Amino acid sequence: MLRLFNSLGKGLQDFHPVNEEVVRIFTCGPSVYQRAHIGNFRTFLFEDVLVRYLKYSGFRVERGMNFTDIEDKAIVESRKSGLSISELTEKNIDEFLREMKLLGLLIPEHMPRASDCVGEAAAMIGRLLELGIAYRHGGNIYFDPLKFPGFGKLFGLDMRRWPARRRRFHRDTYPGIQWNLGDFILWHGYREGDAVFWDTPIGRGRPSWNIQDPSMVAGYFQETLSIYCGGIDNLYRHHDYSIAILESLRPYPVARFWLHGNHLLVAGRKMSKSRGTLIYTDALLGQGYDAAEIRFFLLYGHYRDRLSYTERAMKSAAERLGRLRSGVREISERAGSAAPEGDPARWVRETFRRRMDDDMDVKGAVDGISRELAVLRGGTMEPGAAAAVVAVLREIDGVLNVMFQDPAG
Asked: What residues are paired with 307 via a beta bridge?
């Protein structure tokens, strides 16, 4: 039985999908004001392995991932670059899709853009105004969290404890992982000179980042999601905002499980453009690593633990994968063109399932596979038995996607 750590409740729980016919998942996609770095891809890769493992376990999966293409940061970056916002974001979306393919990520069934869901966002805000949960101020529209019972339940925040510190927060996002104890913005009202705006029934302006994900979720999923994923930063503000908006408008929970991946660190700190610590896939490719080695480095650990990037750690991961792939090649060569016979890889399969069922412990699964393969390689195997081992490894690599070929191959 697969057990996952649910951020809603802060504990391991047996996984049961909301809908037995299909596991519906929404994963927070990239903010495409800039190119995605390997820290971003660590999150997307843990989500990729989750989807692959659910399929390996016999589930049918339907997944959505959004592109945030009209937030404050994209508008600022557009001005700096001299590109229109659509030119800037299209370039970064194209690059993101290319790197998804490079690193062997499955493409989700739904990949909406915030700019395509403005009508849905405006309609949701209109309904929140009617309910008295949202209100107008200074041309903008804000959400009053104290009008939503249980606000902050995902993180574990009770904002009623700080009534004197309440204020309105006007920007889409704020630096750091901290809480804004106040009312959050839903709609940026038009101001003279604004380059990005829409005319809607609630007025001229643009949706804030806070309403964009809810509008895209509601556009594709009309039931409680089985899983909602994102990076750990989303535990501060963003996902509780999404819950408050959607559950104010729909009579059912947003998701049964909430999963959050931890940071990739450089020099002990989160990657940062201002500190010059962003690392991109092409830099690692330029150092001689292949796509499978990059993918493996970002996966080899536990998604809820921090992962530190150093040159030594990257090299060590590549060497570990090299040893694993060497063992796989040796067994493949023993198999030749023989048909599989027997089940000599039963312990490999059971080790993989046991570790992955424990909240997707990829490191434990890989280490266990390596140990079992060492035992098999040390014995004598007929070609048919070796072929049976290879068949099991190919099934497992449908999840890991690192053992048999470069993911982009």
From this structure: 264
27/305 Cα distance (integer angstroms): 19
Q: Residue 197 phi/psi, 5° resolution?
A: -165, 165
Nearest to 397 by CA among 49, 45, 4, 25: 49
pLDDT tens figures, 146-190? 999 999 999 999 887 776 567 899 998 888 778 888 999 999 999
Task: Render pLDDT for 57-115 as a digit per residue (tens, 0 to 9).
Answer: 999 999 999 999 999 999 999 999 999 999 999 999 999 999 999 999 999 999 999 99
CA–CA dist 69, 66 (Å, integer): 9
Who contacts 319 (Cβ-Cβ below 8 Å, separation ≥6)? Answer: none
Q: Which of 350, 353, 343 is nearest to 390 (CA)?
A: 343
For the segment 287-340, what is each residue's pLDDT rounded down to a tens digit? 999 999 999 999 999 999 999 999 999 999 999 999 999 999 999 999 999 999
On whether the pTM is more than 0.70, the answer is yes
Strand pairing of 11-14 and 3-6? antiparallel
Q: By C-alpha distance, which of 263, 201, 256 is closest to 226?
A: 256
CA-based angle 9:15:17, to the nearest 5?
Answer: 105
Single-letter amino acid code for the residue at 233: D
- Return the exposure string of 363-402: e unless at least 16 CB atoms fall within 10 Å of the residue's CB, then b: ebbbbbbeebbeebbeeebebebbbbbbebbeebbebbbb
Structure tokens at 305: 């633990």
DSSP assignment of 344-357: TTHHHHHHHHHHHH
Nearest to residue 216, comparing CAs of 245, 195, 190?
245
